[in-house]
Specification:
The protein is α/β, with parallel strands linked by helices. It has a domain at about 1-165 and about 205-230 and about 275-285: NAD(P)-binding Rossmann-like Domain (Rossmann fold). The protein contains eleven helices and 14 strands. The strands form four sheets. It has a seven-stranded parallel sheet, sandwiched between helices. The longest helix is centred in the N-terminal third of the chain and has 18 residues, at about 90-105. The two termini are about 35 Å apart.
């Protein structure tokens, strides 16, 4: 198929784009390379790859590229609460308006798969899993924009969405501001960090499994469209303290004292059920232990100042 991936050189896109090429698809990546990343250089020999340096806010360009595609994967995003709070106008234009523009101009035959976030669940209830029927209660502008555009897409009935757990793992366009990546980096480089509100829980997903979810949905689109899907590791609804304990198993001298003073600016606290997407046959392949082991190796190579969204 002909596939358009906006943000296709980003953290997930840098894993997804080569995976799509390996499947035999023709892939067009639209990316503004805002972090000066070089993540797709190893794909440039592929004749089926087209790279367009541009911005999803350019409606003429976006419309032209989207009109040629069988599958639309809008990954371009100002990701995370701090970045969106810093530039709310750009956040709305990229995270909401550009996706809406694509959806409203697509034909019924074109497939659109949107990566939302399970951060939209906000603050859950202790011991109760959030499933796709749980009310969305986002607590940041980032979450609200994602939830709002997801509702618009689902109301159409011809799109599907993923509510991704907190993604982690090594990518050619690395991010260190993600929770597992950040905590593991601190363990490897500092052996120490102060932990705030350690009981806060969330779900996690390896970046390769995030890419795998798109491949799965492309193949099963007819059966899956019109619904949202939580996507995460079903055995990894972990508190921040439990995550640190997992890291400590592989970095034994990692210390993480808890501070009773101060608050975590990210107030998300929930556990998630991934049963709906698992019922379609999708399975994750990288567990937390393996992902942390991978990150420990990655952090022998990279250092913080190069890789962050904040």
């Amino acid at each position: 198929m002909k596939i358009l991936v906006t943000g296709g050189a980003g953290y997930i896109g840098a894993i997804l784009t080569p995976a799509l090429l390996r499947e035999g698809h023709e892939v067009t990546v639209l990316d503004n390379f805002m972090y000066q990343q070089t993540s797709l250089l190893d794909c440039c020999a592929e004749e089926r790859l087209t790279v367009v340096r541009g911005d999803v806010r350019d409606e003429r360009l976006l419309g032209e590229l989207a009109g040629k595609a069988d599958v639309l994967l809008p990954l371009a995003c100002l990701t995370g609460a701090p970045l969106c709070q810093r530039d709310p106008m750009a956040a709305r234009a990229v995270n909401h308006d550009a996706v809406k523009f694509m959806a409203e101009r697509k034909s019924r035959d074109q497939r659109l798969i949107f990566p939302c976030t399970n951060s939209g669940y906000g603050i859950g209830q202790e011991g109760i899993h959030c499933d796709e029927e749980t009310p969305m209660r986002p607590i940041s502008l980032y979450g609200r924009l994602k939830v709002d555009i997801e509702k618009h897409l689902l109301d159409r009935g011809d799109c599907l969405t993923f509510r991704f757990a907190t993604v982690f793992g090594a990518s050619p366009r690395m991010r260190l501001d993600l929770l597992v990546n950040d905590f593991t980096y601190r363990a490897v480089t500092d052996r120490f960090m102060v932990l705030f509100e350690p009981h806060f829980k969330r779900n996690y997903l390896h970046v390769r499994d995030a890419a795998g979810a798109f491949l799965h949905a492309i193949k099963h689109y007819a059966d899956m469209k019109g619904r949202p899907y939580n996507v995460g590791l079903s055995d990894a609804n972990l508190s921040k303290w439990e995550l640190c304990e997992e890291i400590k198993k592989q970095v034994p001298d990692f210390q993480f004292p808890v501070s009773e003073v101060g608050q975590d600016p990210d107030k998300r606290n929930y556990i998630v059920s991934n049963a709906r997407i698992e019922a379609t046959g999708f399975r994750t392949t990288v567990n937390m232990e393996r992902g942390i082991r991978e990150l420990i190796k990655a952090f022998q190579i990279i250092r913080r100042q190069q890789y962050s969204n904040v």
